[in-house]
Write a structure and sequence with these properties.
mainly alpha; 85% helix
């Protein structure tokens, strides 16, 4: 696993934790929760693309 992939996995975990934290204090349709979810989706998509290249 490359350093870039490890950093991306770390970013995914941080974003997931942030989203869960926000969702526990607000509605699932809260702007900040939706934004965090969208960011998480983008990071996961990037990770999937990276793993397909290997």
């Amino acid at each position: 696993m490359t350093i870039e992939m490890k950093e991306l996995l770390n970013d995914i975990e941080k974003c997931r934790a942030r989203m869960v934290n926000l969702a526990s204090r607000a509605s699932m349709i809260d702007h900040n929760v939706v934004e965090a979810s969208t960011q998480l989706d983008t990071l996961i998509h990037k990770y999937i693309l990276m793993t397909r290249k290997q």
